[in-house]
Amino acid sequence: MSEHPGGQTGAVPVCPRHPDTVSYVRCQRCGRPTCPACQRPAPVGIQCVDCVAQANAALPVRRTVLGGRDRGGRPVITMTLVGLCIAAYLVLALVPQLRGDLVFAPVVGDVQPYRFLTAAFLHSGFLHLAINMYALWVVGSVLEPALGRWRYLSLYLLSALGGSVGVLLLASPANDSWYTPVVGASGAVFGLFAAIALTMRRLGRDSTQILGLIAINAVIGFVVPNIAWQAHLGGLIVGGVLAAIYLYTPRRKLWISVVGTVGILAALVLLAFVAYGRV
């Protein structure tokens, strides 16, 4: 007679996770029956998924040189951000009337604050989208594994917010800047530019090329019409400050990164309140 999970006796052994599945293969670690769907190869024999999960949980968390969690694999956050921007572009191509409800302009930011962030996922045309997504992919693929997912995502989103706040602070109700809609991930991308430049310096690598790239893009923002250089500047400043906090926080004191992230967010909200309060 074989022992049934739960201490009961039964005619045949069954998998604890799939009671309808008979299994004569047992986990080498816990000895329970394990069906093919729950079997995982081990150095010796087979282990069940529960034992493998317990073993992985007991392993020490691997950290990068900058304190980020070393997960390996693809840059999931970067891929998701690129996918969201592309999806937004396609949706607005099919339903263009939605654009007016998502773009950012200082005149509507106080009553519809979600626009501070949604505008960073919209683009004015395919070339605008392609340039920003290329920069996001190139820089993000390096920064995400170095910083870890949550710090990288925080850096991107707060830089995007910083871009919108930059537009707000440098606009005036006395001219068109208060009413001009702004879209694009450029503020967030400039935040990543600042972060990758600081990262390379932190690691003792030559940052001349990335600094040159930032300078070229900054000049383009002033020379080429219809480019919100204010968003570039806002994203660059926020990204630089937040990256400095992340890069120079001791690896064993990552709570400082959390406090810094919350502090930057609070500062952006405060600046927005002050800007609207002076109107």
From TrEMBL:
Keyword Protease among record annotations: yes
Family according to the record: Belongs to the peptidase S54 family.
A GO molecular-function descriptor: peptidase activity
InterPro entries: Peptidase_S54_rhomboid_dom, Rhomboid-like_sf, Rhomboid_protease_S54
Subcellular location field: Membrane
Name of protein: Rhomboid family intramembrane serine protease
Organism: Georgenia faecalis
Domain of life where this protein originates: Bacteria
EC number, as in UniProt: 3.4.21.-
Pfam family, one: Rhomboid
Transmembrane segments: 76-96, 116-140, 152-172, 178-198, 210-227, 233-249, 254-276
Domain Peptidase S54 rhomboid: 112-247
